[in-house]
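Hi V.,

You were right to ask for the full record rather than a summary. Here it is.
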Amino acid sequence: MTESSTDAMIGRLIDGRYQVRSRIARGGMATVYLATDLRLERRVAIKVMHGHLADDQAFKSRFVQEARSAARLAHPNVVNVFDQGQDADMAYLVMEYLPGITLRDLLKDYGKLTPEQAVDILEAILSGLAAAHRAGIVHRDLKPENVLLADDGRIKLGDFGLARAASNNTATGQALLGTIAYLSPELITRGIADARSDIYALGIMLFEMLTGDHPYVGDAPMQIAYQHANDTVPPPSSRVPSTPHELDELVRWATARDPEDRPRDAGVMLQRLREVESGARGTGANGLAHTMVLPSGLGQPTASVDADAATQVFGLAPAALVPSDTAEQPDLPESSVLLAARSRRRRRSGYWLIALILLVTAAIGGAGWYFGSGPGSEVLVPKLASLTLDQASARLTEQGLTAKAGKAFSSTVEKGHVVDTEPGPGAHVPKGSAVTLNISQGPQPITLPKLAGLSVDAAKKAIVASHAQVGSMQTQFSDDADKNVVLAAYRASDDSEISGGGSYFIDLKINLLVSLGAVPDVTGETVDDAISILDDVKLKAQSGDEQYDAEIPAGSVISAHHLEDGAVHEGDTFVLTVSKGPEPVEVPNVVGLPWNDGKKKLTDLGFTLTYNPGADAVAPLLKVQSQDPAAGTLAPPGSTVSLTPSF
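Predicted structure:
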């Protein structure tokens, strides 16, 4: 995606929902933008695949895989993925927006972290990764760039673009994926990853947090990979002597060359981290500071102090701590004083009793008036059905009641007139109460279900059940729906699309657009067979241009192009592009070139190579000694060229 196209994204409305505000970051596969979800009114991060990758199915699969992997996780230390889709030719992911920085940014600013900071971040990463491992997901691309540090203190693990379902041996495919500085030995040597490969990457990240640098450096990626495969990661204390012994051991355990010697998953490593956390943070064995017992009273210390003791005890003043048994107590009152106090309490109780009787008498009289002729008296709700709103309101006012307007649908009561009341006629209610008048809105509209995606028979039954009518049916081919599945529904009166769930009136006539299934794929078929296949589904075909093609045999179809624009209907014509077979190319001369340069020159032209597999391990030291076939030979792409290295 060019800078101009990036500028063009600002302000764009994606999929009718996400308004792009600004660019956050740009990577090799996608660009991340800050956007507003107009439907839920919240800020989100939206990752948009670069335009030049839109036709690459492998990259599209990576996008879908990232959404599915993250959607399976619900954990406070994993970035949430809300949505995934495609707008025109643009694939996108919608994720939780976390204002802040990455762990990589933090390391750039501070170089290295304290043990306490490293433990806090490692614990959060392990918590999120443990949830992924429990869900059977291997991240496969752990690195500081994928650890997000939010402004509010949250730490989250993101970018599951390389994640895969875990098994005992999860292969990486045709190429190693991930960042070379964090790849485990088994990924480099055998191309196999599991949860323990994530643990190795975490060990390298912990080393980097504690020391500010990678354990291995080299001029070329192959040199770094060689060290990962053959060397043992040094302890962080070899670079930073103040590193706690517990963190040295965690790094050693996590980065063991043999996967069997590492924690089996992030949950095991998290448990171990919590067991040694106090020591890793540099506190005492129990995670507590030294204890100092201070006196509760005043005075100076009475015992000597041992400066090396973990606990320092200061002397206490015994008199300040122990109450005296001989302290004077107040004299008890005499009997005459007690009798006088009791007499006063009896007189006060008599006054309160008289006041209470008067209060109860007044309350009973007031209640009798309130419920007999006052506001609390009850009246009968009159029958008001079929009256207008004004007429019904006047009747209620006469009864000492108030009116409250409501709504109701009715096919028998004229629109604008009362259907019924709440409470109903004949009910006794307190005077001044509100009675709801349900006013007729006319006949109740029907609600249609979503018809797109149903079979033709199911759609017809749904239309009839909703008291609507089935109109005409049109057909077209579709790659997204099987044959006889409804693609869309339209109102017969004005051809407006019916999405389902809306309100419509009875006897609405609905036209259906029905799928004929996908257009048959005739790639690789002979011209005659392709014409016959398309004719079977009532499509026409004609021969077009011939082209060289390394994959399609001569005389077979490379592609079928729809002659007309838009949707494909029965009777449409397809133009067939026919293969002339692979175009021969001249074998270049690679003798004397550096080993990797010679290999690249041949593979870029599509040739397959055979050579001693041990040559790759020391590739920077080798050159091509000989080749077969010789330079200048014409050979089709895909042919095998044998190389001999100079050991």
